[in-house]
Write a structure and sequence with these properties.
It is a single chain. Helix content is about 30%, strand content about 25%. It has helices at about 20-30, 50-60, 85-90, 100-105, 125-130, 165-175, 190-200, 235-245, 260-270, 305-315, 335-340, 370-380, 395-400, 400-405; strands spanning about 5, 15, 40, 65, 70-75, 80-85, 105-110, 135-140, 145, 155-160, 180-185, 205, 215, 225-230, 250-255, 275, 280-285, 295, 320-325, 345-350, 350-355, 365, 385-390, 410-415. A four-stranded mixed β-sheet has the order 22-23-1-24. A four-stranded mixed β-sheet has the order 2-15-17-16. Strand 16 and strand 17 (about 280-285) form a beta hairpin. The protein is elongated, with a radius of gyration of 21 Å. The structure holds ligand EPZ. The site of ligand EPZ has 21 residues, from helix 1, helix 5, helix 6 and helix 12.
């Protein structure tokens, strides 16, 4: 397995180009199932998770072709309605094919995703929503079987709490349902909005895009469309933290400050300068990092997918910070590893008290989740000596050419190829 070696202490300066959002690309790719004409996505990131979903879609009959950053997904005919265990096991987001398959084929059999490194993560809201739309749901042999022989029908669905995936799955399903569906307490994440805009380009009728109440009037069919995937706000925030921890000066291009206002507000409170530029924004730090409290929340609040990176930044702040995770019950796997690098962090249930230390020290580390792994890279950039991050495949799921982008700004970082 490849590893990443970092020799810390170098200041980052320069530009980093941000790619298309992984968490928008995945539902957008699944949306191709809804139409019998091709969906063309531009600004597609080259990531392991994207390749995993492409493989699953190919098994369902979608013809996937890539030309650089452009991906064409043509689902003239669905040839299978089963999403097998081996692929769903690799990536929970595979469950996003469920809504589109039931909507178009009136049936689907999707392996039930299990727990994952960041928590139990059930899919009950996805299933209850489909049931409300008239599907019969059965769980057998580890699979969810959804059957809607008469087709799906519109329904009013009130989410008891915000779920990005359930909103996306039901939004897609509702586009082809008979009648009107109303999704209340829907997720407002920019990736949900991006999906809705693409569905409209395909011919869907959706009102309330960007809000927490989505009204979808079902149509008979969706058609060909071309859609540019929005910039990855989590990749953006990750490099912003990386620049900040090194006392650097980096311009993030191809992205927008408006996608991560809560993050930018917290970074400013921590003493980081963030200024918009013509093609993105610039992150700079001259003075010390100040301890600051952060609580994760659904969008537009502080993203759970940036919690680990913010924690890495705050390990070397002046003063203490309280970091509270409200979205996932087990998203602190980076804490023991950061501690091994000299961080002073105490966990109290869903909160972490981080007392800033003067300096971190390099160590061999590893993590079992994408964002936890990248937080160790951020810590390594500021740590004295050498840090080796193991299990790099987690990073490859969500960060394209991470080591190249950081090295181009002056980081001493390289990938150690597994020669075994
Ligand atoms: C999406 O996951 C993202 N993944 C996650 O990013 C992100 O952390 C998460 O949203 C929250 O922002 C993709 O977009 C592919 P949820 P999702 O449904 O949709 C509970 C990353 O690092 N829940 O909003 O699976 C759930 O357990 C990843 O890129 C239920 O209880 O998240 C969690 O506690 C990791 N029942 C909370 O809701 C359900 O049916 C929010 O989860 C669905 C969710």
């Amino acid at each position: 397995m490849d590893r990443i070696r970092i020799r810390g202490g170098r200041r980052l300066a320069g530009q980093i180009a941000i790619g298309g959002a992984k968490n928008a690309a995945l539902p957008l790719m699944a949306a191709s199932i809804l139409a019998d004409e091709p969906l063309t996505l531009t600004n597609t990131p080259a990531l392991a998770d994207i390749a995993t979903l492409a493989t699953l879609l190919e098994q369902l009959g979608v013809v996937v072709t890539r030309d650089g950053r452009t991906m064409k997904l043509d689902c003239a005919r669905v040839t299978s309605t089963t999403a097998p265990y081996d692929l769903v096991r690799k990536m929970r987001a595979s469950v996003l094919v469920l809504g589109p398959l039931v909507a178009r084929e009136r049936r689907a059999r999707v392996s039930l995703p299990g727990g994952c490194a960041i928590g139990a993560r059930p899919v009950d809201l996805h299933l209850k929503g489909l049931e409300a739309m008239g599907a019969r749901i059965e769980l057998a042999e580890g699979y969810v079987e959804a059957l809607a022989p008469q087709g799906l029908r519109g329904a009013e669905i009130v989410f008891p709490f915000v779920s990005v995936g359930a909103t996306e799955n039901l939004l897609m399903a509702a586009t082809l349902a008979r009648g009107t569906t109303v999704l209340k307490n829907a997720a407002r994440e920019p990736e949900v909005e991006d999906l809705a805009h693409c569905l409209v380009a395909m011919g869907a009728r959706i009102e309330g895009i960007g809000g927490d109440r989505l009204t979808i009037h079902g149509v008979d069919r969706l058609a060909a469309a071309t859609h540019a995937i929005l910039p990855d706000r989590i990749e953006t925030g990750t490099y912003a933290m990386a620049a900040a921890i090194t006392g650097g000066d980096v311009e993030l291009t191809g992205t927008r400050i408006g996608l991560l206002e809560a993050t930018v507000a917290s970074m400013r409170t921590a003493g980081i300068t963030v200024e918009p530029t013509a093609s993105g924004f610039r992150v700079r730090r001259d003075g010390p990092i100040q301890g600051t409290d952060v609580m994760t929340e659904p969008y537009p609040g502080f993203a759970t997918d940036l919690q680990a990176q913010m924690m890495a930044l705050l390990t070397v702040a002046e003063g203490a910070s309280m970091i509270t995770e409200t979205i996932f019950e087990n998203r602190f796997m980076h804490v023991p590893e950061l501690r091994r690098m000299g961080a002073n962090i105490n966990l109290h249930g869903s909160s972490a008290m981080v007392r800033g230390v003067r300096r971190l020290t390099g160590a061999p580390v590893m993590a079992t989740d994408l964002r936890a792994s990248v937080s160790l890279v951020i810590a390594g950039l500021a740590a004295g000596g050498e840090t080796v991050v193991n299990r790099v495949y987690h990073l490859d799921r969500g960060y394209e050419r991470l080591e190249d982008k950081l090295a181009a700004c002056g980081a001493d970082i390289e990938r150690l190829k597994d020669t075994a």
